[in-house]
Amino acid sequence: MKRLVVLASGSGTNLQALIDAITCGELEAEIAAVISERPDAGALGRAVAAGIPALTLSLADRRDPAIRAAYDRDLASVVDSMRPDLVVLAGWMLICGTAFLERFPGRIVNVHPALLPDGEASEVTTSRGRLPALRGARAVAEALRRELPLTGVTVHYVTSAVDAGPLIAHEEVPILPGDDETRLHERIKRAEHRLLPRAVSLALAASNEEE
Ligand code: GAR
After folding, report:
1. Does the annotation mark 112 as catalytic?
2. Ligand 1 centroid – CA 100 distance (Å)
3. Whose CA is nearest to atom 5 of ligand 1?
4. What is the average per-residue pLDDT within 91-114?
5. What is the side-by-side order of every strand in the sheet holding 30-36?
6. pLDDT tens digit string along 57-81?
7. How confident is the model at residue 210 (pLDDT cuts 50, 70, 90)?
8. Residue in 31, 112, 190 to alter for ligand 1 test, most ligand atoms within 8 A of Cβ
9. Which of 25, 76, 108, 208 fits 87 for a cystine, CB–CB 3.0-4.6 Å?
10. Is residue 98 part of a domain?
11. How many domains are there within the chain?
12. Does the residue 182 lie in any domain?
């Protein structure tokens, strides 16, 4: 059975989508552990409820480069000890540093709440023409601020170029009249919950072919 390690900073609805997809047989994998940098992350409670080992690895100061680099090394060692086939960033709000990326080349995937292209282009082709690729932590708010006709969800491989790695799958999400950030993010998350398990399956199948 393929092993996933899930890193999650938030409420964990994407983790839950993976747990549910495994339970119903849509995703053939097991979650070896869930790790958060926030002890209060809802994702940890969801892991415990599902009988999955849940760990907090706190980061003392995210702006101190030495502390940040040591954290990446520690995180890489802990994740490596779980022998994952794939590391899934499911609402992980820290940028992955070099030590972490180098330990799992081509084996880290991320779900992002906007439509991204395959790679580093600044725009993405959509059913409504070319639109800006919204990277970073404010992607949902930014889609509204720019009054885009649509946004979306992307699952991609993680590289040192933030939110710009090779595409696995993406899906458009409409922006509707009267949307605020909460309402739009809820619609985006519903799409994420469909797309993430499928994208993880695709990434696991691709890793099989490489073996
Ligand atoms: C998701 O919308 C995910 O795309 C986003 O955080 C949310 C986590 O929700 N991730 C990022 O913004 C990463 N840059 P969840 O905790 O309910 O799964």
Report:
1. yes
2. 20
3. 91
4. 97
5. 54-56, 30-36, 3-7, 86-89, 108-112, 150-157, 167-174
6. 999 888 999 999 999 999 999 999 9
7. confident
8. 112
9. 108
10. yes
11. 1
12. no
